[in-house]
Design goal:
There is one protein chain. Strand 3 (68-69) and strand 4 (72-76) form a beta hairpin. This protein has helices at 2-9, 23-40, 90-101, 114-120, 175-181, 213-223, 249-256, 284-295, and strands at residues 11-14, 45-50, 68-69, 72-76, 87-89, 105-109, 129-132, 137-142, 170-173, 237-240, 266-271, 274-279. Strands 1-2-6-7-8-9 form a six-stranded mixed beta sheet, with helices on both faces. The protein has a three-stranded antiparallel beta sheet with strand order 3-4-5. Strands 10-12-11 form a three-stranded antiparallel beta sheet. It is globular and about 55 Å long. The longest helix has 18 residues, at 23-40. The chain is an alpha/beta fold.
């Protein structure tokens, strides 16, 4: 029933693309096909959710060799926290804006750290919502006003962009969603310190001192010898197989394939050799369902007050 109601709320298109090997042309082609499909079904499609890495953004071996073609220049993103550099095509950016001009809501949802998302925003498609940390945090673009004191997102120019497409904007967090994550039986409040849109220069609280179900589990894993990636995360953490020096392959597999029980109230997912843990109320599916309810209301606009 939960899945059925989710489908009834909104017909969701996940933008899928072929992996590298002509990645730029593939991404642009699929973006074009998706745009045509979305615009040809009238009002059936209201919201389009898209991942970032491997979907909108690709990672060729030599970024500098990818310059694009006339009318479809390539933008190189700043390196991620792990040193990876991605590229996105002007055509992909233009097609995403075409969807929004035709009344579709575009949502970017990714497992990336909030700090990485903020650094990448000038290079990503202008969207109606941005979700980081596997759905743990949700942000909305807003016009910059006199009293605005948060980060200003200045978009990078690309082929086919109008002046309106490149208008700078501010960003605010969905505090209702955040309140769910801040519950002591979820991630708690400590992980947000030093990772706010304002006062981001504060020193984050050490993992060993954070309170909340998520961080209790994190500290349990640390005590068992697991190496955790927590930098830049406030509502989830990650374990990378390559980083494990004190646990066996068998122990890591037991964790990755749920042969080790973990606290009720947390969920996990595995991607590219990494295991992510986050509150059960978080996760990409729950985040999408929440935003469907927001965007498929009568006026289709989230309440940002």
């Amino acid at each position: 029933p939960r899945i059925r109601s989710f489908v009834y709320l909104c017909y969701v298109v996940l933008v899928l693309v072929v992996q590298e090997s002509n990645a730029v042309n593939s991404a642009s082609s699929v973006a074009l096909d998706t745009t045509r499909a979305a615009m040809s079904t009238k009002d059936d499609i209201q919201v389009i959710f898209s991942d970032v890495d491997g979907t909108l953004v690709h990672y060729p071996k030599d970024v500098d060799k990818h310059k694009g073609s006339p009318g479809n220049s390539i933008l190189a993103l700043p390196p991620s926290s792990t040193g990876m550099r991605g590229i996105i095509s002007s055509r992909t950016l233009a097609q995403c804006q075409s969807l929004r001009r035709h009344g579709k809501k575009l949502v970017i949802i990714s497992g990336m750290r909030t700090a990485t998302l903020l650094k990448r925003l000038p290079y990503l498609p202008r969207s109606d919502a941005y979700c980081a940390e596997a759905g743990g945090r949700i942000f909305y673009p807003i016009p910059i006003h006199e009293n605005y004191a948060g980060p200003v997102i200045k978009l990078e120019p690309y082929d086919g962009a109008s002046p309106n497409d490149l208008t700078s904007f501010g960003i605010v967090e969905d505090l209702d969603w955040r309140a769910r994550m801040e519950h002591s039986k979820a991630a708690g409040v400590d992980g947000f310190v030093g990772m706010e849109l304002k006062n981001a220069d504060r020193e984050p609280i050490a993992i060993s001192e954070r309170k909340g179900l998520l961080w209790d589990w994190a500290n349990t894993l640390v005590s068992k010898g697991y190496m955790l990636d927590t930098k830049g995360y406030s509502t989830c953490f990650r374990l990378n197989r390559k980083h494990q020096t004190n646990v066996s392959e068998e122990d890591f597999d037991a964790l990755a394939f749920n042969r080790i029980s973990f606290p009720e109230g947390l969920s996990t997912s595995v991607n590219l050799g990494c295991v992510d843990f986050y509150p059960s109320e978080s996760g990409k599916k729950n985040c999408c369902a929440y935003l469907c309810k927001k965007f498929c209301s009568e006026n289709g606009t989230p309440d940002l007050s």
